[in-house]
Amino acid sequence: MTQSRFDTVPVRAKMPFVGRDAQLALLVDAYEQVATHGASRIVSIVGDAGMGKSRLLYEFLRGLAGKDVLALNGGSAPYGSGAAYRPGIRILHQYFNIADADDAQAIQQKVAGRIVALSGGTASAVFPILALLNALPADNPFHRLPNKEKRQHVSDALLWLGQRLTTERAMVLAYEDLQWVTADTQELAGAAGARASAEDAAAVLTYRSDHDASSLMTPDTIEARLDGLEPSATRALITELLGDDRSLDALKDELPERSGGNPLFIEELVRSMIESGDLTGEPGYYRMDSPHEIVEIPRTVRAVLAARIDRLGRTDKHVLQALAAVGDVASVGLLARRARGPGRRDSQIACAGCRPRDCSSSEPRASICRTNSSTR
Asked: How would you class 375 by CB atoms within 10 Å of its CB: exposed for 0-12, middle for 13-18, buried for 19 or more?
């Protein structure tokens, strides 16, 4: 399963998961139908930005660990991404155990070996998949096919692979952020969903409320809708984050309505208030050091993030700009090349760009930085 941004967050810094028991139960029930009764399901997780679609999916997939199921997650798409088949590429990296350091020859060996073991053809499956992974030799005849024909071969190969894998065990495929993917990827997700409805598989799709995904839905599609948390759940979330100090009472009374129950809004506001000094203490034991009447609560998540960015130092801002230009995921080495300027050392850039909670490695050379799409 692909690494989620939640995997790199220390337990102490991870937001409590509250108020989503009913939606998680829908996902678990869909999986049980697939694993136990050989049924197939399509589940859509729908909600506005910041409502916790990716977190819900993460908790669901985490619960599948140790079970006899092939769970593959295409990951989230970056804002405005134009990369065709991006979720499919990530899924292929997981299934074929392709590492970031693998060169084209290593990828060719891994892909060809597994596909041959699955009784797949070289021209029909190996070539299209290697082309998608940018590992097909430049002189291969596949490159000379018309683009439309190449896309069809790629789609056919991916669907064949999915069908073949479900003969071994139940499978869960996750495609996130459909509102941002290309038409090719959306078409593939639709075909995968249709195939899932005929095989022992569950397809989990996430997208925002204003996205029209009707073309991907079937009469049996299960919808897990994420609205704002109930006031009681919002208050419980704030209490778990901040604690029970009486100086927090007014904040707890105001935030449920002001935030609309949006978990990301609450998370970013809490971080902003800690950075500004309005909240002091440690997780679970904070207190308000400023009178509540003079603490301004922004109206939107973007406004909260803008306030946090304004407080960054010059180097941090420069690195954030570079990361926003590079994409949703970048190595510290790449950031160092993009953000290097007079008097800036790589170690400074690494420290500025990747806080411990954002890095997947303690080694600066191998560290990976991730951004939240709301910062774009």
From this structure: middle
Q: What is the full DSSP assignment across 333-357? A: HHHHHHH--TT--HHHHHHHH--GG
Sequence letter at residue 53: K
CATH: 3.40.50.1370, 3.90.550.10, 3.40.50.300, 3.90.1700.10. Which one for 5-226? 3.40.50.300
Domains in the chain: boundaries: 5-226, 231-310, 314-375
Mean pLDDT confidence for 142-162: 89
> Pairing state of beta strands 170-175 and 222-226?
unpaired
Contact between residue 158 and residue 196 where contact means Cβ atoms under 8 Å apart: no
3-state secondary structure 10-50: CHHHCCCCCCCHHHHHHHHHHHHHHHHHCCCEEEEEEECCC
Q: How many residues does the chain have?
A: 376
Are residues 346 and 362 in contact, defined by beta-carbon separation less than 8 angstroms? no
Percent of the chain residues topping a pLDDT of 90: 32
- Name the residue type at position 80: G
Give the β-pairing of 368-370 and 279-282: unpaired
Contact 133, 84 (CB under 8 A): no
Per the CB < 8 A criterion, the answer to whether 209 and 31 are in contact is: no
Quick check: 333 and 365 in contact, CB under 8 A? yes
What is the reported pLDDT for 271?
A: 84
The whole-angstrom separation of Cα 166 and Cα 170 is 6
> What distance in Å separates the CA atoms of residue 326 and residue 320, rounded to the nearest whole number?
10
Per the CB < 8 A criterion, the answer to whether 74 and 174 are in contact is yes
Dist. CA 68–CA 286, nearest whole Å: 43
Contact 286, 247 (CB under 8 A): no
Is the pTM of the predicted complex or chain greater than 0.90?
no
Neighbour count for residue 156 (Cβ, 10 Å): 14
Predicted confidence band at 308 (pLDDT cuts at 50, 70, 90)?
low
